[in-house]
Fold these 2 entries.
Entry 1:
Amino acid sequence: MKKYALIILLLSFPICNAEVIITEIMYNPNGPDTYDEYIEIYNSGNETVDLVNYTICDSKLYTGYINKTNKTVHLNTSLNLTLDSFALITDGGSGTEVYDIFNVSNSSLALHISSSSICGGLTNSGKTIFLNSKNITYDPEIGAEGDGNSLQLFNGTWISAKPTPGYECIIEPVNDTNQNDTTNNDSFSNSINISETECDTGIRIYTIRLLNSEIRSNYYLYLFSNMENQYATVRYWIEDLFGNYIRKPRNTNIDSKENKSRSFTPPKIYGSEVYLIKANIIDESCDSNSSNNRAEFLIGVKGEEEPEIEETDEEDKEEKKKITLEILEFPNEVKQGDNLTITIRLKNPTDRDEELYVYSYVYFGQQLASEQGWVPNRKLVDLEEGEETVIKLKNRIKESAEPTFWNIKVKVKFDEEEIEAKDEVKINEKIFEEKEQEKYQTLEDKSVYAKDNELDGNTIYVSDKERDLDFSKYLIIIIVLISFATLLGSRKDNFLKVREFLNFDGKLRDKRKDKGRSPKSKTDNRNSRQP
C-alpha cells in the first residue's frame, strides 16, 4: 500500500511547540481552482492568538470571507484565534465559493486575503506556503489531485482525506509497516466500507455524441439514488482536452430521478474539435459513496471547412492572437527614494477571457533598485476577449540605490505562460539635488530679508557687494593721501606743511584760535586772575 509522505522544509520549530500551524490544504478541488482553494490553520498553543500581524505568503489576513456571487463580506467577526480552534483562509480578490461547496464548521474563524489566489495559486505540482516565518512545501504525490480530497495533518503526518474545513481530521491512515497486522488494516477498511443499506447518490450525463458548430443543442444531467426523494447541488461545465473552459462552471439543484436539461451552442470552429461535458456533486442530502459523484461525457463538434490561406498569413494570424504587453510611458530619470510610475498597455486579441498577474521592478543582475522584493506591486487583471487596458505600476526606488543606469522589467503571467517588457532608467543621487535646492533657497531667503528691511524703515540691510564697494572707496582715498605725502616728503618743510594740513599735532588749530585775539585781551585776562 502506498506510504503517505510529505516534504516539510525549514520548519522554524517542532509542531509540539508551535502556536499557529497549517493543518489542511485544498490545492486541487474538483471545480475551478480560483474560487475553491483554501488553507486551514489551527491554534495549538496555550492561549488565544491575535492574527493581526500574521501573513500567508506575505499577504495580510482580513476578517470574514467574500462571497463570489455578490462580493459581500460574511462572518466578519474577529482576528483572535482561540485556543484549540481552527480558521479557514480563502481568497478575496475575486471572492470564494468554499462556503457554498464544502461543509465548513460554524465554529471556525473565517479569514481572507486581498489577492485573487492564495500564495499566487496553489499549484497542482506542489508549492511552498509561508505562514509568517514558518513554511511548508506540500507534495501532490500524497494525493488530493482533483479527486475531491484535501491534504490534512493527522497525528503529525500528512494524508489525503475527505475535506474537513474547520473540523479535526478523523480519518485513520493505514500504517504500511504493520501490513501483517490484520487488526489495523481491518479497522481502516471498516471505516470506509459502504453497506448496501447506506444511501448512494450519483450523477450521469446524456447527449448525442456529435454536435455542429454554432448550432444549439441540449444535454441532460441525471441524478440517481438508491433512496427516494433525494436531491443534490451539481456543478457543471464544458472544457476542451487541455482544460480550457468552453463554458464556465455553474451550479444547479437536481432532484433524484430527474433529467435536468441544459443547452450548449458550440463556438464557430474550422475542422473539428473534441470537448468534455463535466459535472460534480458538491452537496447532497444523502450519500456515503463519492466514487460516482463525478461524471463526464465526450462530444465531438464539427465545424466549417478550414479556408485555404498562405502559410505566412496563418503565422500572422497566430501572432495576433497572443496577449501583448507594451510599455507606454515612464520618466527617463528618477531620484533615490522617489516613486517611479510606469504606464503599460495590455491587449487580449484571443477568443477567451484571461486572468493576468502584472508586476514590475527595477534591477541590474541580481540586485534590486526598487523596494519590497521582486513582486512588490503585483496586480490581478481580468482581461476579456478582444479587450485592451492601460495600467499604471509604481515602484519606490531605494534610498541606497547606486546613481547610475538600471533596467526596468514588467512581467505578465497567465496560465503557464509569461511575457515581459524591458527598458532603462537613470537613478540620480538625491543628496546632490537637495544641496542645490538648499543653496537656491538660501539666496532666495536673503533676497526676501533685504526686501523686508527696506520696507521696515528702521533697519537697513547692506549686501556684501555694497560693503566691498564702500571699503574700496576708503582705500583709494588713503592711497592718494600717502602718495601726496611721499611727493612732498623730500623737503622737511614740505613735510611739516603736510602735517599741518593734516592737523596731526593740533598746532594748526591753536594758531587759528590765537588769530583775532589782541594783546590787550591777553593782558587783561592775566590781570583778571586772582592771586
Note: The longest helix spans residues 430-456.
Entry 2:
Amino acid sequence: MNCRHWKLQRDTDGIAWATLDQAESSTNVLCAEVMAELARILDDCEREPPAALIFRSGKEAGFIAGADIAEFTRMDTPAKGRELVERGWHLYNRLAAVPYPTLALVRGHCMGGGTELALACRYCVAVDEPGTRFALPEVMLGIVPGWGGMLRLPQRVGPVAALDMMLTGKSIDARRAKRMGLADECVPPRVMENAARALALSGCPPHRPPLLQRLLNKPPLKCLLVARAAKKQVARRARQEHYPAPYAIIEMWRRYGGNALAVPAAAPTSLDALIGSATTRNLVRVFFLQERLKGFGKEAADFHPARVHVVGAGVMGGDIAAWCAQRGMTVTLQDQDVARIAPAIRRAAAAYRKTFRHERDADKQVRFALDRLIPDPDGCGVRHADVIIEAIVENLAAKQALFRAIEARAKPDAVLASNTSSLRLADIAQALAQPARLVGIHFFNPVAKMPLVEVVQGAATNAAAAQQAAAFVRKLDKLPLPVRDAPGFLVNAVLAPYLLEAMRCVDEGLAPETVDAAALAFGMPMGPLELADTVGLDVVLAAGKSLAGGAGLPPHKLAERVAAGHLGRKTGRGYYAYHDGEPVRAKPGGIPAHLALRLVGPLLEATQKCLDDGIVADADLADAGVIFGTGFAPFTGGPLNYVKNRGKLP
C-alpha cells in the first residue's frame, strides 16, 4: 500500500512496516493529510491483520517532529482547535486498541504527537544515538498533549516522571527512555530493525511501571500526593494567569484521566480556554521566532569548524571554551599562564560531571570532553583554529593589540571573533590589516544556559564571515541573532536601563526583595537585582558606564558594593548575601502599584530605540533577541508585541 506520505510494506514474517516519509518536507510532521493516511493504514490492517505493525521514519532527520504547528495557527476558533485534538485522540485510541502487536522504532527526534504515537503502540524501540530524543513539549506552546499523552505516559512510566516531562517540555534521550520504561529496548543502529522485529513478535506483555507508581495513578494518591506536589512545583516557576497550560495538564490528568476533550468548555483549564488565550497565541509566536533564529547561518552550511581557539580564561572565556569542547570541538584555551587557565578547567570538569551524570559511561564522556579542552598559555592553537574568539577585558587598546598578533598567526580563512559586550567592533577592527575578517560573537552568562548569541556585523565585516559565525553558533546548539555594530548591540542595550532602574529603586529605599518580586509578578524569570548579582556587579557597573558614554553617575549603592568588593554571586555577596550559591532573601512585603511597569518601561523604550536605529532588522527579531537574551516574559510574545497588545494580556 502506497500513499503520498506513508508506505506500507509486508515482509515474509507477516510484519507490516509503515514508513513515514513526508513529501516535500525535510522532517515528518503530523499534518491532516498524514493523519488521514495513517487512518487508511489502519483500515488496510483491519482488513488483513498483520503479524505485527511497525512504525518507522524514512527521514534521516528523525522520527516525527510532532504536529504541524503551522496548521495549528490556522485554528482561529476553539471549535477548530477541538476538532484537531479530536482527530488525533480518536485515531490514536484506535491504534492502541488493535488486536495485533504494534511497535514504534524511534531513531532521531520524537516530539509531541510522535511520542504520543509511540505511546499508543504496544512496544517502543529507541535507537541509541545522541539525536534520539523523546519529548512532549506542548506546554511550551501553551497547549497540552491532547492525543493521548496525558493518558498513556503516566500509565507507562508512572505519574511522577510523566508529569515532569509534560510540565517542563524537556526531552529525554534513548537511554533514559529505556530506564524510565518509555522505551522497551535501547539498541545501536546496526541491529535496530532486527530488534524491532524480534520484540514485535515476542508476545511479551506491555511494559508496566512498579506497583507504587501504579498506585500513584489512582485515587486517592494521585490527588493527595502527586497532583498537589506537581501544582506546588509549577507554582514556583509559573503563575497560572500567565501560563495556564501546566495547570491544565495537572487538572486533566487528575480529574479527567488525561482526556482533554472531557473538560467542560467553560472551565478555565479547558481546551477552549487554552486555544483562545493570548498566552497560547504568543507562545506559538515565540516558537516561530525561535525557528527563524535557527535558520540563520544556513548560507554557510558547508562551514565545519573543528578547532576553536579562545583567548581569555576568565568566567566568560573559560565557559565558552568549555561549551565548545562539550559540543565536540577541539579547543585551545589561552591566558597569561597555566594558573589563570586552571580555574576554567575545574569549572568545566564540574559542569561535565553534572551534564553526563545520567550517562551509562559518564566518566568516559567527562574524560573525552576534558581531553578536547587544552590549556594553551603560549597560544599555539591560533595557527590551527577555524574559529578564534577573543574574550579578554573590555579594554580597546588591549583588544586591538591582541588582534594584531592573532591576525599575523591565524589561518587566512579562520573566523576572527570578539566577544566584546560594550565596545564597537569597528573600533577593534581598526587594528587589523583586513578588518573585514572581524565579526562579533557575543555570548551571555551563563554560557551553558543562555540560548542566544549575538552575531555582530560591523561596517567593514564581510557578509561571509558573519554567515560563518552564525553557522558556528548553530553548531553549538545556540540561537544566532544578527545585530548591527553599536554600543551594547541589542541585549545589553535594553538590559542596562532595566537593571539601572531597579538599582535606582533600591537607592530610593525599596528593598531588593520588593523590586525583584515586582519583576517576577510581571513574568520575568529572575528579578533584575538577582540577575545583576549573577552577571557580576563590577561587570554591570563597567557596562553601564560604557553604554552611558560617561554621562551621569551610577546608582550609589551599586558603586558602594563594587568598591567594597561585594560583586554578587561570585563573591558571595552583592544586593543579596549568598549561601551555597543561592540568595538569602527576606519577605518582599507589599509591592507598590505600577512598580513593575516602572521597571520594564526603560527596557520597552530601549527595544523600540534599537529597532528605530536599525540594530536589528525588524520588530520580530527585536522581540526574539530580548526574549532569548534576557528571558523577557515569553507569554507576552516579546516587548514590542507586549506594547502593541497591552491590555489584551493576562
Note: The chain has a mean pLDDT of 94.
